[in-house]
């Protein structure tokens, strides 16, 4: 990849006249941005083709058949929105495009947690937890004219009620996801939203004077749909990086334990998101998913143009 100096020298050779350095740097930035957009659009086409193939296979079959491990990191390259009557009315006739759920639905934050299980990383709260972040994302998407399904299954409650271990959370969250996919053929993406255990200094970025929790996109290497999910996660990363540099921590792949895929074997555009860490606040989390809703809206709009 060309460096800023390479681009600067190239432009000087092309325009031998005395050119202001500010102009050259600005032009270089524009060239790099155009290159990123072309690369992003190329990847978008790949993901779109994969999604179309999945949908066709699903229709033909008339339905669907009824964290740990090593990880690898890939990194190649606000305020709430008010809902309005027009967008709400438009949603009445729109099929859902995004499925949002939380396999660890009671994951909470230092500022809100009422108890700690096992160690300081395991912070939980029955009400003030990560599910509120998913709810915020769903509302933000709605204000952008996008209908989503936000699953409210209380996974932790079901685990405790049936005396199941915490490691079985993905098995419990799998059934509602299967039902949603079987009954909503229009879904384009599946997002399992969590929060990480990182320290605030690692999980937070300051943008325009406000703190935003960073986002990590996690893909299971154990899933049969790994390639499709990886491309989708990379797409999310690239769109985020384009609009909000460094807000994304990048794409991570995990060699999940035997029998676990984070349910990503069920659908080709599935990703697990770590939004911020335990030391972030709910207000900050809302800020980031408001931005995420913009990114998702942009991707869906671009997909629509390509179809």
Topology diagram in text:
Blueprint: H1 4-14, H2 21-61, E1 71-74, H3 85-91, E2 98-101, E3 115-116, E4 123-124, H4 130-143, E5 148-150, H5 155-161, H6 169-183, E6 189-194, H7 200-203, E7 204-207, E8 210-213, E9 215-220, H8 226-243, E10 248-254, E11 270-275, H9 282-306
Parallel strand pairs: 2-5, 2-6, 6-11, 9-10
Antiparallel strand pairs: 1-10, 3-4, 7-8, 9-11
Helix pairs in contact: 1-2, 2-8, 4-9, 8-9
Architecture overview:
- The chain is α/β, with parallel strands linked by helices and 307 residues long.
- The protein has nine helices and eleven strands.
- A hairpin with a 6-residue loop joins strand 3 and strand 4.
- The protein is globular, with a radius of gyration of 21 Å.
- The two termini are 31 Å apart.
- Residues 54-70 and 76-89 have low confidence and may be disordered.
Fraction of residues in β-strands: 15-25%
- Kindly state the percentage of residues in helix: 40-55%
User: Which runs of at least 5 residues are low in confidence (pLDDT < 50)?
Assistant: 54-70, 76-89
Please provide the count of β strands: 11
* Topology pattern, helix = H, strand = E: HHEHEEEHEHHEHEEEHEEH
Give the CA-CA distance, first to last residue. Answer: 31 Å
Q: So what's the overall shape?
A: globular
Report the mean per-residue pLDDT as an integer. Answer: 81
Question: What labels would you give this structure?
Answer:
single chain; 307 residues; alpha/beta; seven-stranded mixed sheet; two-stranded antiparallel sheet; 9 helices; 11 strands; 16% strand; globular
